[in-house]
Amino acid sequence: MEVKLGFDELEAYVAAHYGQRVTLGRIDGRTVGVGLTRRMLFKDRQFNVSLVLESASDTEITLTYGASSALEMLMRIALNYMARHKPDMVEAVRICPGQRLKLNLAKVPRAVALVEALAFESIAVEEDGFLAGLSLR
């Protein structure tokens, strides 16, 4: 089966749950661009990062990103914020050497039942979102 998750759905989810406005857009079939506007020192600054889908398995998605040291610092701040406000998600997202992010779906409380019931086959970036190929276990 195929499951589609639209960029607009993800943007709305981030805004509703984390109070942040992000913009998402396709760069190519494995790369998505992420933009975030933050007010810093009385000025709005736009931060952009490209996330490349490196690999995916039933429980883990690995992304690589190209970011400046300032943006990497903001990513670490965001993970610290998440650790304080969503402690059950701390083990779900890790920053690894080589500008890699690892998303462990088995550690996301709301995704555990899905991970147990569905086998992950593929993921692609489409014009307006992500398309995942899944099968029942």
Task: Give an overview of the whole structure.
The protein has 137 residues and is of the alpha+beta class. The protein has one domain. It is built from three helices and nine strands, in the order βαββββαββαββ. The strands form two sheets. It has a six-stranded antiparallel β-sheet with strand order 2-3-4-5-7-6. Strands 1-9-8 form a three-stranded antiparallel β-sheet. It is globular. The mean pLDDT is 84.
Helix content: 25-40%
Q: Could you tell me the mean pLDDT?
A: 84
Q: Output the structural class.
A: alpha+beta
Counted by DSSP, the helix tally is 3
Report the sheet with the most strands, covering strand number, pairing sense and barrel closure.
6 strands, antiparallel
Strand order of the largest sheet: 2-3-4-5-7-6
N-to-C CA distance: 12 Å
In percent, how much strand structure appears in the residues? Answer: over 45%
What's the number of extended β-strand segments?
9
Cα shape = globular
What is the domain tally?
Answer: 1
Task: Describe the structure in brief.
The chain has 137 residues and is an alpha+beta fold. Helices cover 26% and strands 50% of the residues. The mean pLDDT is 84.
